[in-house]
Amino acid sequence: VAMAMFAPVLKSRDIIKSLSQLRINITEESLTKPTSQRVAEIFAAIIRHFQGTDPLANPPTVDDDPDEAEFYADALVLVRLSDDVRIFLKSLMVEDYQLSDLLRPEASRLAQ
Q1: With the CA atoms of 44, 95, 32 and 35 taken in that order, what torsion angle do they form, in degrees rounded to the nearest 10?
Q2: Over the stretch 57-104, which tens digit does the pLDDT of each residue have?
Q3: Which residue of 67, 74, 109, 111 has the smallest Cβ count within 10 Å?
Q4: Which one, of 30, 50, 32, 49, lies nearest residue 40 by Cα?
């Protein structure tokens, strides 16, 4: 699911097969019509598999207005996940990951 610096190098079926071998189940639609929530789940599963940590577990607490706390906690979880994804992809020499890849994923950045 890594986004290459120039274009994805794997076709959707190859990504699905590779992730399936890691027990990360995705559908073709996850790649061709990606949603922020589904891409976050996929990235979190990859981080869990390779780094042994769950970036979506233990959401940070916010000592603020209770109505705003949930909003900030959700935002902090996404920022933490994005940082984990950026560091992981950078270790694979993928340099062009951006927060928008998580917030507004594009099929063309995920697979051929």
Answers
A1: 50
A2: 776 666 656 666 666 777 788 888 999 999 999 998 888 899 999 999
A3: 67
A4: 30
Backbone angles phi, psi at 105, to 5 degrees: -65, 145
The amino acid at residue 5 is M
Which of 93, 61, 92, 88 is closest to 77 using CA atoms? 61
Dihedral over alpha carbons 82, 19, 52, 4 (to 10 degrees): -40
Q: What is the mean pLDDT of residues 103-110?
A: 89
Q: Over the range 60-75, which residues count as b (16 or more CB within 10 Å of their CB) and which as e?
A: eebeeeeeeeeebeee
Confidence of residue 43 (pLDDT cuts 50, 70, 90): very high
